[in-house]
Write the structure tokens for this entry.
Amino acid sequence: MGGLYDEPEEVSEFGFVKTETLTGYGTVYINTSVYANWVYLDFAEAETVTVDMTAGDPEPGQWDMAVHRYDVKTNGGSAAMTSWTDIVKFEDSGDMPDDAAFVSDIMTDDVIAIDMSGMMQGNIVYAEDWYNPELSRWLDVDTSTMPPIYTKSDNVFVLRLPDGRDIAIRLDNYMDGNGTKGYMTIQYKTLTGEVEL
């Protein structure tokens, strides 16, 4: 756990593909390639739900974090980036970010792109939605050049949830084995609160 992958890892299923009930460690593999979709993650139940926001589908009743392409929002939580790049070493260090470092979601109407079909003409359709600018730093997509330049942060982030749970998360990959963008491998570890898997 915590090593960098030189090649994207082949995963045959989506969702919580690995969970360690007693320790709270796990791996989530999600498909965020469709711009109209949010993928909602519930760490307590080890469940993912994909919601098409353009179809007016409701969000699930319980969720902790959601990912749209590479944008992230929380369910009333906040997030902080650490200087650590390994979840195990971060946890062993006991070096939790200060409360002031945690950033809450903000409402945005110019970040969540849901229709890129007019991109070449400068017409991108955005949705108004919540967005966590800190947690979304796990992948920088520079669209000032074509093709875009993707720069992955190797840092561990802490997701702080309203129910008292702190979850360390780290983006390991943002593409599948064929190099197709939008297939994300996320490592996580529940740090505080009950592990209810």
